[in-house]
Amino acid sequence: MAYRLRNGLHFCVSEGRTIFFDVPGDRYFALKPEWDSAFQKFSQDEKPVPELAELERARILIPCDGACAPIRPAAIERATRDFGLNPSSPFVRYAMRSILCQLRAIVWLRLSSFEVIINRLGTRHPANTANRAEDFVGFSQAFAATAPLRPRHRHCLSSSIAYVYMVRASGMEATMVMGVSAQPFSAHCWVQSGDTVLNDRLENIRPFQPIFCV
User: Fold this and answer.
1) Which of 30, 31, 84, 178 is least enclosed, having the fewest CB within 10 Å?
2) Distance in Å from the first CA to the final CA of the chain
3) Residue 43: which H helix or E strand, with range?
4) Is the pTM above the cut of 0.85?
5) How far is CA 213 from CA 124, 129, 137, 175, in A?
6) How many H-runs (helices) and E-runs (strands) does the chain carry?
7) Which of 170, 207, 203, 167 is nearest to 187 (CA)?
8) At 114, is the pLDDT very low, low, confident or very high (cuts 50, 70, 90)?
9) Pick from 71, 78, 51: which is nearest to 10 by CA?
10) How many CA atoms lie within 13 A of 84 on its CB side?
């Protein structure tokens, strides 16, 4: 029997464990070992094993008629560099704009589901100009300078949503990346352009395996 992943479900393998990100449910989860082993084996060679019935009952796998697209982990470019910025005076270029964008992101997170927010980010302000490195540096300086003013709860998520909104409102393009780590089980997110981290440091994101991006 052919299977596909349930809509809105994404996965990666971190330190040998399969970790899923359920976008509509706004949650991460892992499988118990016997299910994990069966799922990884199926995703590699697509040969059915008995445990797949359990994954079907759990609505992780959905049967499909005919051929299905291969089930593969997220393939997201890994960042290899950052701007190496240090916090500075909050009175820098773009500081007020970054604060307003962050307030907007905080309100979105309180009033809307994550799925609604990423759909909003994906449809607003389509890119209409080439990315400008000097603007990315300015935006990153502003976010670093205003970091002490931000609430710590879900800090990386609100900061990343705000950064992507600010970039796209300027007619440019950037990608918000969600990453997970199996040991310890944790999640993080950041923004990058190509292989450059824009709102974080490379050492902070290195332990996390990308699982989803916007």
Assistant:
1) 84
2) 31
3) helix 33-45
4) yes
5) 16, 21, 21, 6
6) 7, 10
7) 207
8) very high
9) 71
10) 2
